[in-house]
Amino acid sequence: MTTRNNNTLVAIIAEGNTEQAILDVLIKHNAIRYSSDELLQEEIIRCRSGRGFAKKYLNKSIGKNVLIYRVLDSKKENFKLPPAYREKVSGVINLYTRPEIEILFILFHDDYQKFKNQKGTIKASTFVKENYNDLNSLKAYHDNYLFWDKHFNDLIDVLKTYKSYHNDDNCIADLLI
Predict the structure, then answer these.
(1) How far is CA 175 from the centre of its chain?
(2) How far is CA 100 from CA 55, 59, 65, 95, in A?
(3) What is the pLDDT of residues 71-114, one digit of tens each?
(4) 155, 144 Cβ separation under 8 angstroms
């Protein structure tokens, strides 16, 4: 994993509300290697397009390079920065949550094997909706933030468990202290 120096800011880009909520909980509890003041805009960013990210965040004269972490579930999604902005970026690291971020709920409920037995026929989000009632809205930022904040130690455990199952991928656990 790429390291940053004093002349580098970190951009953590979340694919969706759930990813953002989880990352915000980790930052609140000082569980990742970066504090909010080391983050670009001092927050988790929601921008999936490389071009859009460059236009919105790299167009400014910030005087530092940016190390980008992208939290997403698909290995197929491109993040193509325009050539004029590439020198401002010291690296782009994808952190995967395959097949979907909802896999963390499945791990929380210790149902990974049960899910894997059905994997070809059901998405993780559908499995969670059909089997658990932890959240009013599975994709809502607020519900996810409250849930994972209340279960913070379990969140750390499921992130590490996920990493043990996906050791070949970079994932959120790689950001943990």
Answers:
(1) 9
(2) 28, 31, 30, 12
(3) 999 899 889 999 999 999 999 999 999 999 999 999 999 999 99
(4) no
Position 90: which residue type?
A: S
Checking DSSP bridges between strand 8-14 and strand 65-72, what pairing results, if any?
Answer: parallel
In the chain, the percentage of residues whose pLDDT exceeds 90 is 85
User: C-alpha distances in angstroms, 88 versus 44, 49, 91, 125, 175?
Assistant: 19, 16, 9, 36, 22
> Counting every residue, how long is the chain?
177
CA distances, 155 to each of 26, 42, 74, 121, 149 (Å): 9, 22, 21, 26, 8
pTM over 0.90: yes
Relative orientation angle of helices 141-150 and 152-165, to the nearest 10 degrees: 100
Rounded-to-integer distance, Cα 124 and Cα 9, Å: 33
Q: How far apart are CA 65 and CA 36, in angstroms?
A: 16
- Smallest Cα–Cα separation from 85: which of 126, 135, 51, 131? 51
What distances in angstroms separate CA 175 from CA 56, 75, 144, one per listed residue?
24, 19, 19
